[in-house]
Design goal:
The protein is an all-alpha fold. The protein contains nine helices and two strands, in the order ααααααββααα. Helix 1 packs antiparallel against helix 4, helix 5 packs across helix 7 and helix 8 runs antiparallel to helix 9.
């Protein structure tokens, strides 16, 4: 498999990236908190309106219910308050562009920082594959965060395993690509197709297996293929 980016192999770069991500998460949490506040105000408004509907009798007509509702001074007060205060506040929330401020903060954090690119992700995938080859690690253990005897909280999703499988396939290592596609298929089932569906993975698995078998049947023998059964 060809070499790609080297950010993943630099301890100092990876430390800088981790610090950058921690700061980015802080900005995103602030942004999410603002959005959650707006969402809570909308939900509160809707909930209060729906609570007025509970005052209606099952057999009561809509006209009778509305007439009785507006005839209640408390309901009348709440109705006017919602239109004079609550709805204008919600409209103000909608018009505010919270992301603009957060976007500027995110861009400022990225300036002058080491930011991984696509080739770095391929380099990190290659590092995992080399680790697997050198130490003959079980793919399911790697995906589950177990490297050798050490168990960590680091996990690979079905989508992650599919990416690594595609990386192997594009590098011509069909045997490894099939193994990673199979792991992706298993994880997709366990995840209930959360990151990617089993049907999507199956397409890659079938394609890789077909090409692999065709090459084996033609008599090809190399480390990128399983031995002929």
């Amino acid at each position: 498999i060809p070499s790609y980016g080297e950010v993943f192999s630099s301890v100092s770069d990876m430390q800088a990236i981790f610090k950058l991500e921690r700061n980015l998460v802080g900005e995103l949490l602030d942004y999410a908190e603002k959005l959650q506040g707006k969402l809570n105000r909308i939900k509160k408004y809707v909930s209060e309106f729906e609570s007025t509907l509970l005052d209606g009798a099952v057999t009561e007509s809509d006209a009778d219910f509305t007439s009785r509702l507006v005839g209640n001074p408390v309901h009348a007060f709440n109705l006017i308050r919602r239109f004079s205060i609550d709805i204008p506040n919600i409209e103000k929330d909608i018009k505010e562009d919270d992301w603009k401020e957060s976007s500027v903060a995110v861009q400022r954090l990225r300036l002058g920082s080491v930011v991984p690119k696509d080739q770095d992700l391929h380099g990190a995938a290659q590092a995992l594959i080399r680790l697997q080859d050198v130490y003959e690690l079980d793919i399911s253990h790697i995906a589950g965060g177990k490297i050798g005897r050490r168990q960590s909280a680091a996990k690979l999703s079905a989508q992650d395993c599919l990416f690594i499988g595609k990386h192997c396939y594009n590098g011509g290592v069909l045997s490894r690509s099939i193994e990673w596609f199979e792991e992706a298929w298993m994880l997709a089932g366990e995840e209930k197709n959360a990151t990617i569906s089993q049907d999507q993975v199956q397409q890659f698995l079938d394609h890789a297996a077909k090409e692999h078998d065709e090459r084996v049947m033609k008599g090809e023998q190399n480390g990128n293929l399983f031995p002929k059964p």
